[in-house]
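Minutes, project check-in
Item: structure for the 372-residue chain
Input as provided by the requester:
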Amino acid sequence: MSSPLTDLCPHPIVQAPMAGGVAVPQLAAAVSEAGGLGFLAAGYKTADGMYQEIKQLRGLTGRPFGVNVFLPQPEYSGASTGSTGAANAAPPSGAVELYAHQLAGEAAWYEAELGDPDCGRDDGYEAKLAVLLDNPVPVVSFHFGVPSREAIDSLRRAGTFTLVTATTPEEALAVERAGADAVIAQGVEAGGHQGTHRDIPENDGSGLGLLALVAQVRETASIPIVAAGGIMRGSQIAAVLAAGADAAQLGTAFLATPESGASELHKQALTSPLFVRTELTRAFSGRPARGLVNRFLREHGPYAPAAYPEVHHLTSPLRKAAAKAGDAQGMALWAGQGHRMARDLPAGRLVQTLAAELDVARTALSAGGDAR
């Protein structure tokens, strides 16, 4: 069935906007050219850096694409930042300083200085929104909260389709009430950061699996659903579509492609026997994020405070130094639960392969046969 979401691309396949230099223009262009929906990640970039990537992507494809923006993190006091929802709970007094003290040995080992934890909470949100209103793109998605109705309405007037991540049915309802065009239902299987609207440490580890989440969101909200979390095969796309989703978003599957901006160490780790499982951790950023279990995660995860983006800024130089040293044990190896199913295929061919697998699964399901 046709909808404004599915009209954006021939295949119901969305490439996740992986921040940190992974979702580069070359990857997004390859996905869009193959009939999926490619995405850029504005997170951790300046507004101008985002604009330059948009210009580069427009030079590579004339097909629809998207840009993902992080919502500003509310002050712990509850001050307004233009997003809906209450402030996150403040970490215990001195928790970030204590964590910095614990990381002193890492800094000495990598010969790097720890970052400044207080160098900003808004990720340049207002400036990025201004660029996206002055130079509209086909799709904009949001992570870590719900933008104001005013922001969503402004983007709609500019001709932009909006999506917002939700991890619970209640969050999905908040997304719909804010006026977004569609919701990204992110299951706990997803790699990288969970897009929870509030960061509540007591809820760590209690996230919903993707199929259960999609089914509940379908019964809660009426807007289109993009299902995200652990999807690596066309048969899994068929499963989430059958559960009520309109499209599927894949991150780890595209991280492994040649066009991805991920380091070779990160790509190799996805299927390396050294990294056999993933875990949700606050070790690298202070917010729950799923990554391959390595030394840094094991040693520091249990002690990392719920303090985002302070911990992200604090560990940034360490992560960069580990990557420069070729040490995967000190890097943030974000990956979903399906990481061992990663395929070394060009992004465009991966889209075509997933679409072919989806067709086979749909045919088998409709005939009551084996959808594998």
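Outcome recorded: The radius of gyration is 19 Å.
No further action items on this chain.
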